[in-house]
Design goal:
alpha+beta, Alpha-D-Glucose-1,6-Bisphosphate, Chain A, domain 4, 4 helices
């Protein structure tokens, strides 16, 4: 398993950061467009436990889709999602939120994943390429959310 982690302090209230950061509509706006092209809820209430969303991306010119299920949601504290279908052997995302005063929120985002040993993703994406892309993506997403929520 590979673990990628980022932490960021956002000068915005906890509830606002949680709602923005965990909304499927904002995933495609936050992540680099060369990683995530589309994201949308496909079943259940958006980001409630049991809900599923589809994330469509493009990796080195190849189109991929991943179905992600919300495994755990603790309002204003934690959101855990896991791939149920897609290119990875396993994929889990854990986002944790902590109030850091009245107007600031600390966000920790960890992605644990494992590439398969066979399949089309392996044919065009090595382990180090995947890690670099995902690390850049998670960091850019955090910075994008920070900029959007801190802008007047």
């Amino acid at each position: 398993m590979v673990k990628i982690q980022t932490e960021i302090l956002i000068d915005a209230p906890l509830g606002e950061v949680f709602e923005y950061y965990t909304n499927p509509e904002y995933i495609k706006q936050s992540w680099p467009s060369d990683v995530i092209k589309e994201s949308e809820n496909i079943s259940g209430q958006s980001n409630e436990e049991g809900a599923e969303l589809i994330v469509k991306g493009q990796y080195l010119g190849k189109r991929e889709e991943m179905i992600i299920e919300v495994i755990q949601k603790e309002q204003n504290k934690r959101l855990v999602t896991r791939q149920t279908e897609g290119p990875f052997e396993s994929w889990e995302s854990i986002q944790e939120f902590q109030s850091n005063g009245d107007k600031a929120t600390l966000v920790s985002h960890v992605i644990d994943y494992q590439l398969p040993t066979t399949g089309k993703i392996v044919n065009f994406l090595t382990g180090s390429q995947a890690e670099v892309k995902l690390r850049q993506g998670i960091e850019q997403a955090a910075q994008t959310v920070k900029q959007r929520l801190e802008s007047p």
